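Weekly modeling sync, notes
Attendees: S.R. (lead), two postdocs, one rotation student

Agenda item 3: backlog of single-chain predictions. S.R. asked that every request posted to the team notebook include the full sequence so nobody has to chase files. The rotation student volunteered to paste the first one in as an example of the format we agreed on. Action items at the bottom.

Example entry:
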Amino acid sequence: MAVQVGAQQAYPTQPIRLVVPFAPGGTVDILARLIAQQIASPLGQSVIVENKPGAGSALGSDFVAKAPADGYTLLMASTSSMVINPNLQKLPYQLSNFAPVTLVASVPHVIVVNPKVPAKNLKEFLAYAKQAGKVNYATAGTGTPHHLSGALLAHMGGVSMTDVPYKGTGPALVDVISGQVEIMSVDLPPALPHIASGKVRALGVAAKKRAPQAPDIPTIAEAGLPGFEVTGWYGVVAPAGVPQPVIDKLAVAISQAMGSAEMKEKLAQLGATPEGISSKDFGDFMGKESTKWSNVIKTANIKIE
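Predicted structure, as returned to the notebook:
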């Protein structure tokens, strides 16, 4: 027993792998790389970010679920991987296959369209969509918040929209910018520079309040669709069975990093709000989120073919 305790106290003794279940360029990837930089020094080991995209985050998530429970393989978790996908389809993993470490940050979604779409605001877009009969919306993959958000927008707006799945936020945004797809519900951080440069037009932020980083963009409620709110969240989880002292050490390092002035400034620039809670509170939070998204899926009658 003394040897086991000593081993836990010594953790980590080798580099840590932080798996991102999406392609590079999206919010999950951006946050993972920021965290990896910040916690390497206090943990005394390098933290390597590894992208494993595919199957709407299920591929990378399942990889971590089946990894050894030693604290050296972690998952940059998100709303989709933890609470949406398990409510949409049968997966090789469940929420119970993971040990919650801590909530990292939350980010509102923003509805963006290609500038050539003849709509300056949400009401005009819904009118355009009704007249067109059908429009396409880009997603970061089947079962992602982008997918559910677009389906919910179509449901609440009374229009027909077809989802076009991509392997991550980055590739999806590229096709909205090029005009291959008309519209996307996307987390604010990767969209901000493209909104600022005019490559996409923002119709509204899907949050209760306007984003401080983009105060000129109205909320979706202000734009004419009250009750439409989509806020993504991001956290770190480990395979179930990782010793609690290891979980606690990781949670402290990440929470302290999220509370630093440098990280707060970087997250503010990204449009993200830093969090940082105990592993137990994060577990409780994910349980409530699972119930919420299950209700959204039923309300919008969302199914994966």
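Discussion: group reviewed the output briefly. The chain is about 45% helix and 20% strand.
Action items: rotation student to repeat for the remaining queue; S.R. to check formatting next week.
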